[in-house]
Amino acid sequence: MPILILGVDIISETPKRFAVVSWFNGQLDKKGEFTFYRLIRFVRAKKPDIIAMDNIYELGNEGLKKFIRALPQGVKLVQVTGRPGEQKSLWSLAKENGIRIGDKFDPYEEAKVCALLASKGVGYEVVAFEDEVIVTVSRGRSQGKGGWSQDRYRRRVHNLIQNKVREIEEALRRADIPFDLEVEERDFGFSRGEFKVYASREELAGLIKPMKGGDVEIRIKPVERKSFEFVPLKGEKAIEERKSIIVGLDPGITVGIAALDLNGDVVAIYSEKNMAISDIVRFISEIGHPIIIATDVNPAPGLVEKMARSFKAILFTPRESLRVDEKNELLKSLGVDVENDHQRDALAAAYKAYLRLKPKLEHVDAKLSELGLLKKSNEIKALVIQGYNLGEAIMKVKEREKPKEEVKVEIKEESVDVTPYVEKIKELEKTIELLERENQELRAMIDKQRKVIERLEDKLRLYDEKVRRKIIKTKEIEIRDKKIAYLEKELKEAKSIIEKLSKDLVLAKRMHLLELKGTAIPLKVLESLTWDEIEKLEKSTQIKKDDVIYISNPAGAGKSLAEHLIKKGIKAIISAKGMPNLVYDVFKANKIAVLFEDEIEVKRVDEFAIVDREELEKAIDKKLKEWEEEEREKQIKEFLRLVEEYRIERLKELREER
After folding, report:
1. Is there a contact between 257 and 296 (Cβ–Cβ < 8 Å)?
2. Whose CA is closest to 377, among 386, 368, 385?
3. Please, is 622 exposed, middle or buried when counting C-beta atoms within 10 Å of its C-beta (0-12, 13-18, 19+)?
4. Which of 81, 158, 281, 466 has CB atoms 3.0–4.6 Å from 87's, for a disulfide?
């Protein structure tokens, strides 16, 4: 039973949205609502065994092709309601299989029913690819223009392609996978090699790896069917009795097929370019049941071997590959005209196989004529070809016609003695009766043991089910809570970062625009007023005359640092915090304006800051005027103090004179 099944049903057409329910070892889980491409990503991530739908065409014609091509290897797409034209109602199927139904108009309910039906083996798998893969080995890069070096490079690449073709060929032979190979030879190597591998994608997994981007490129492309085939998940097709035939097959880009009956008469001749394996099987099956699949070359091509295995037919190969003149001679004796070489090769192979068997088949016809069984000639000759002797073949055909107890062999003449075979059949019937009786006894013992095992398993399940559920639930809750907490933390941090970056981006754009317009002046930023920070700033961008310096934290600065900046000819200082008096006085003495953030608006993003040009000029003028005013007031106070001292001294002198 598959481990994971996804039930899918459409919610809306525009835009396409799907309801998904999973079935995992008997447990159903509602996965939620998916868009088309999110559904593809979910399937590729989870790799379920089955995707079950009530109608695959709900994916849309183009969407269905994209969806099937995107499926990972081993994932089956199943239509639970049956083949197109033979579909049953989803709800009637649910009722037949004992599935409870809720709201019929709920897409999740339909998805659930699809998953449950698939878990019971109900439905048809959609087969979109042939059991056939095209592997192409070619040049990976363009060779460019000519010249001696390009010629050497071309020869090297062709040699690499040849080596890679031989490597793949050896790998396929070791894996016993049939294939046909076509190569284009050039410069003592191959310019291209194309394998037609008669195996599914799953069989090639890990055997041949695609290559891209180097001197040699390997592409693996599964062959798509012309139309979808719907194969039941369980059960077998009833096989009707068909006419036995000998089939000649000529594989390649153009496939040739010829069929003869067991009398050597031509039944069919056909050829078609790029004929898929399923089309070859379908064409042969419609003609009859192949007893022999024949080829005109030795050893047999991979496709011919695969066809023989598929039909469980005998593979015929000539002792040596047939020459063209031999083939023409064979067709001349048949008196049949063909349209092309492929039909000629196929018909020659089939006729050569028939000629090999002709003496035996004529002998069988002669004996059957004596026994009055010519009506069963086709069936008996087919059995003889498969390895039965004539007596066994006659008995087998008779057994098919009558119940076992009524089998009587009437021989008109004593040419063939079948008495030993009748006695052997009676002995085998007795043995079968004994074995059936023993089988019944063993089945009874097995049933008894199974009941004991089921009873013990029930006790064990009841004993530890609660504990197991509790442990699983606790672990799941713990894991879920940790994951939720972690994701919430990440989300909060991400939102915070996004919000900050968004604000910074908007501000940076505005700042850059203002700078371009000439209405703003960029500031050179120092995080602290230290020698290290100044060195770092001068390495990245030199401090020049008329620069405006922005200091985040001037605490701890010394007089020498201030004098260094003054020598550079800076225009002003903007400080985010209070500045040491000693440093402030040095700037003041040299008329370098020191402004604080409450005096001027600074716009800053990380290492970048600007101020409005007009606002800065006004703030500098204001600061310098304030300092000049302070200096004048200081001078007036000093003058008044001196006048006062002089007045006091003069009064003292006048008193002493009196």
Report:
1. no
2. 368
3. middle
4. 81
Q: How far apart are CA 147 and CA 628, in angstroms?
A: 82
Chain length of the chain = 658
One DSSP character per residue, 562-590 reads HHHHHHTT--EEEESS---HHHHHHHHHT
Q: Same CATH fold, 244-371 and 131-225?
A: no
pTM of the model: 0.39
**What is the rounded (10 degree) CA torsion for 108, 109, 111, 117?**
160
Q: 289 and 386 in contact (C-beta within 8 Å)?
A: no
- Tokens read off for 388: 């039965």
Position 558, amino acid:
G
What does the alpha-carbon distance between residue 511 and residue 606 come to, in Å, rounded to a whole number?
Answer: 12
Among 3.30.60.50, 3.60.15.10, 3.30.420.10, 3.40.1010.20, name the CATH number for the domain at 244-371.
3.30.420.10
Which string of DSSP letters, residue by residue, matches 605-653? ETTEEEEEHHHHHHHHHHHHHHHHHHHHHHHHHHHHHHHHHHHHHHHHH
Contact 22, 115 (CB under 8 A): yes
- The architecture of the domain spanning 131-225 is 2-Layer Sandwich (3.30)
Q: Judge residue 234's burial from the number of C-beta atoms within 10 Å of its C-beta, 0-12 exposed, 13-18 middle, 19 or more buried.
A: exposed
Q: Does domain 4-122 have CATH number 3.90.550?
A: no
Domain residue extents for the chain: 4-122, 131-225, 244-371, 418-516, 518-641
CA-based end-to-end distance of the chain:
134
Q: Report the SS3 class of residue 515.
A: helix
The 3-class SS string of 252-311 reads: CCEEEEEEEECCCCEEEEEEEECCCHHHHHHHHHHHCEEEEEECCCCCCCHHHHHHHHHH
* Joined tokens for residue 58: 């709900």
In the prediction, which pLDDT does 634 show?
A: 84
List per-block mean pLDDT (blocks of 10 residues) for the chain, which spans 658 residues: 81 90 87 92 91 91 87 89 88 89 87 92 87 87 56 83 91 84 85 86 78 85 82 50 84 91 89 83 83 91 83 86 89 86 92 86 80 76 78 73 43 49 72 76 78 78 71 83 89 84 64 61 83 81 83 81 86 85 85 84 74 84 85 87 88 83
